[in-house]
Amino acid sequence: MLQVVIVLLLIVSAVVALVLQVRHDSTQEARNRSLAVAETFAHAPGTREALSSPHPTLVLQPQAEAARKQSHVDFIVVMNTDGIRYTHPKPDRIGKKFVGNTAPVLAGHSITEEINGTIGPLVQATVPVKAPDGKVVGMVSAGITTANVGGVADRQLPLLLGAAAAALALATGGTALVSRRLLRQTHGLGPYEMTRMYEHHDAVLHAVREGVIIAGGEGRLLLANDEAQRLLDLPADAEGRHVLELGLETDTAELLASGRVATDEVHLVGDRLLAINQRPTDLQGGPPGSVATLRDSTELRALSGRAEVARERLKLLYDIGVGVGTSLDVTRTAETLAEVAVPRFADFVTVDLADAVLNGEEPDGVTELRRTACSGIRKDAPLYPVGEKIRFVASTPQARSLRTGEAVVEPDLEGAPGWLAQDLERTTQVVEYGIHSLITVPLRVGPLVMGVVNFWRSRKPEPFDEEELALAEELVARAAVSIDNARRYTREHTMAVTLQRSLLPRNLPEQSALDIAYRYLPAQAGVGGDWFDVLPLSGARVAVVVGDVVGHGLHAAATMGRLRTAVHNFSALDLPPDEIIGLLDELVGRIDQDEASADSSAAITGATCLYAVYDPASRLCTVARAGHPPPALVRPDGSVEFPDVPAGPPLGLGGLPFETAELKLEEGSRLVLYTDGLVEDRERDIDEGLELLRAALTGVDRSPEDTCQAVLDALLPARPSDDIALLVAGTRTLGAEHIAEWQVPSEPAAVGEVRASVTRQLAEWGLDDMAFTTELILSELVTNAIRYGSGTIQVRVLRDRSLICEVSDNSSTSPRLRYAATTDEGGRGLFLVAQLAERWGTRYTPAGKVIWAEQPLP
């Protein structure tokens, strides 16, 4: 309360002084401004001339009022030497006598005074207006009323009072906070209570089982509790003496005398290890000196050492559990086990597995192992190298482990005849190298023994003990589960890859329309459902197809096989690409229905497909696709484009039609088909992949084989997450010299002309030996077209890898093969064609149908 009163008095004094000062400054400012305005107006151009004019008021009154408003004074009065006003803010005062002292002004001097004028109390300044010869011809007075002078102070007074109130509040709050802090620090205790508290603290200080020493700034011992005296064996008169004179160990005495910061520094004092913590007492303005605590850590050190070993072993077990199971590769899992255990548990670790385990199978009676992994602190250890087959003799620890399924520790290899008998030369080298102790643990999951893990020690002179044997068994038990999982995955992966490879084409069929090169790369994570195919069609045409079943594993591979088989069957019908895709769409829909009815949780099959048919005679390529990436076309000049082929929905959605696109391909063009695994992965989207594919394909004079390699070099990721199928087809054409065509009228007599024309054409091609059978085939086909067909009949003969005869008409009715009875007069024509030709069939066109037959060339 005293401090609040003092602050309040100071504030009142400051406010009064400040108000008086403001009023004084405001009055002085008013006097200065009045004088400045009066002098400025008196010396203004035209003022002196206006005084001598016939009507001064008319000239000076407007000017005086304008100047008054701009200069923020209350009046500007111009008068003659008699004191009669020519101007005034109140026009009724013009012509009346000026109120004020004018004698000094008429004498040529300026005057400033405070008077009670016609508009009230005011401060005014009067100055003379002089002629060029110095004679006073008039006077100018300017002034500010006292009300306006005091208004400045009145306007500033609320601010001053507010600041004073804030200062008072801050002072009061600060005083309250300081008081509360003092009460909190002393817990509200008075002198008596503080004395009692000191006595209690002193008793506690001497009762704790931790030494406490307080030293002054000059290094003298000020206080040592009972525990400190016991731990340091201090003399009875130690307090008050210098620390260096107490007979302590040199390093301990220097630490206590220096006063430096120390944290858990361990010092040997007698037969005790003392952990010393020391802090200076003057860090926050306290007296100079230091406080040190001493703790006997002799037993604690031993306990902490054992705890640290246990912690390291738990950490090793954790790392084995986390690190070893990250790979589904048997070899990599074994290598990880060896790498994690070195050097934290052993100096060298070797893993020996049966070949059956490496292949994903269950070993049947392990007698021979292969060194799968080896890791050590050095690379020149004379142990069996990785990859070598090892047959352990019956006396070795490894053979005993495999036979009994129990871990074996060999503490002294030099004195272990059973182990030395394995290979006398090599085991001698191992002992001379410095390896002296061994733990062998079988890799076992249930009754299945897959191999052994060997832990070798060389640096530490102590042999492996029983605790370390138990740890080794735990390490291997955790790793064995991961190795068995990797083995099972390897088996399933091998089965899936085998199935997938068996479903893909092993050799491409022979054909002359396209020069084909391909690549198929399965994903690292597992087999998928990508496939491709090349299918020869009638009329020297070739179909190329690329597809992709979503997902990985056996289900995707099996679905791929079903779709590939379906494509083979549908292509035999010689249907357009859009109809082939439509049939595949229906098939995938039925597969989904069958699987859904068998298993309600079965996933919907997702698949895409691109089907293209190339005709070397017309150079037309008809393409249809269902949700598949578009093909790339490399022109003979090296330019690359992605033709606009209608995408269509993925297979299995149903209900939407598929469209085709016709491409006119020049000879030497390259048609590139691929799956999305080539152009899309986690790190890039499909647009970026297509641009990379365009850049890799750009260029002339490349064979399809070189194109495949260039594309994979540019786009193949390090670890493909999806299958990649790539097919490059270089186009060829069937020239006019290999094609013969005739228009045949729908008359029976035209059959003979056709036979004669074909005979001449075959003679030109050097195929006279095929004339008879070809005439017979064409005569039967043309006769059928004349009898059962309609419109113009077209005959075309192609010389390719085989001799192809084609007869087309405008009818959509297809002939069928049947066995004629002995009494039938007809019905044997197609039977003869089927017997003479290697293949025959019918394909439909927008204008009708084509019946064709192929004969092998001699």
From TrEMBL:
Annotated Gene3D superfamilies: 3.30.450.40, Histidine kinase-like ATPase, C-terminal domain (3.30.565.10), PAS domain (3.30.450.20), PPM-type phosphatase domain (3.60.40.10)
GAF domain mapped to chain residues: 329-493
Designated name of the protein: Histidine kinase
Key words, A-Z: ATP-binding, Cell membrane, Hydrolase, Kinase, Membrane, Nucleotide-binding, Phosphoprotein, Transferase, Transmembrane, Transmembrane helix, Two-component regulatory system
Main location: membrane
Keyword Oxidoreductase among UniProt keywords: no
Record GO terms (molecular function): ATP binding; kinase activity; phosphatase activity
Superkingdom to which the source organism belongs: Bacteria
Source species of the chain: Streptomyces olivochromogenes
UniProt subcellular location: Cell membrane
